[in-house]
Amino acid sequence: MLHDPEGTNDMSETALSTTALILSIVPVAVHGVEVMFPLLARWIVNGVLPFFGFSLPSRATSLTAGEQMTMLDAAVEAAPAEKKNAAKDYIFLMLFEERQGAICFAAVATGAVYGITLALGDRHPLHLVFGTIAVLMALANANHAGVPFLGNHPRVSRHGRHVGIVFAPFWALVAALNVSAFATTLP
User: In the structure, what pLDDT confidence band is assigned to residue 187 with cuts at 50, 70 and 90?
Assistant: First the structure.
C-alpha cells in the first residue's frame, strides 16, 4: 500500500486520482451525442479527422447525412440476394455498437464525476474499471497506429492511423494514472 499513514501525501494522491478520473471523462465530450444519434459520428469524420491528415475540415469533402445513408444502403445492396437480411442486420449492429460505445463513455463519465465526490479510499473500484478500459483502448489505438499483433482492424484509414498514433499515448497515460491511483486508493 502506497498510502502515507500520516496523511502527508493525501493531496498528491487526491490530485493523481482526480486527474485520472477527469481524463476518463474526455471521450464522452466527443462521442456522447452518438447515444441518441449514431450517424452523427460523421461530425467527427467531417470536423475532427481532417486535422489528423494535417488539413482543415472542408465542406467539399464532408459527408452529408444523405450520403451517409446512401453508403449504408449500398453496403446492403452489395450483399448477395439471399443474404440481404444478414446485411441489414450487420448495418444495424454497426450502428447499435456505435450507440453502445457512446453509452459506455457516458457511464464512465458519470462514474468519474461521482468518483470525484468520494473519499480517496473509496475510489479504487473506479480506477480498476477505468484503468482496464484505458489499457484496452491504448492497445486498440496502438494497433490502429500500426502495431500488428494487437488485433485486426481491416479498414484503418490514413486518418485512423494518425488517430491511433495520437491516442495510444493518451490512453497509456490515462491507464498509468488509473493504475497508480488504484494502488494508492486501496484500503
Answer: confident
Q: Exposed, middle or buried by CB within 10 Å (0-12, 13-18, 19+), for 78?
A: exposed
Number of other CB atoms surrounding residue 144 within 10 Å: 21
Measured CA to CA, the distance from residue 32 to residue 10 in angstroms comes to 33
Q: Is the dihedral of CA 72, 144, 98, 89 positive or negative?
A: positive
Let me know if 140 is exposed, middle or buried by CB neighbors in 10 A (0-12, 13-18, 19+).
Answer: middle
pTM for the model: 0.87
Q: DSSP labels for 44-110?
A: HHHHTHHHHTTS---GGGPPPHHHHHHHHHHHHHTS-GGGHHHHHHHHHHHHHHHHHHHHHHHHHHH
Q: Amino acid identity of 102?
A: A
